[in-house]
Amino acid sequence: YIPVGYTVKTNIQEDDYTTTIYANDDGKQLTFNYTFGSDSTKLYLCTKEHETVYTTVKEYDAYIYMPVEKDSRNDIVWIGDNDICFRISAYMNVDELREIAESIQKVN
Fold it and tell me: Higher model confidence: residue 9 or residue 93?
């Protein structure tokens, strides 16, 4: 699921990660990342203060990071099958982030 009005602007694929950036006509971005195959993964969230909300994505533990600054993007992060780390970052509310996360599926 990608919200109406968002289109792919950039897609970067490397051996152990993929990043896809979508944008809408207002210039708001939605970034989807996943990383796999590493012994360790570092994830940097650029915010000084945020509220952390526990949730689930399918059957996996997930966390939503909501910056105190209202003009910042919210992030949802979880680790799925085969220790794949997923992150979605967007100017969207918790329900929208969760809907996008729940819709992710493996394609061949």
Answer: 9
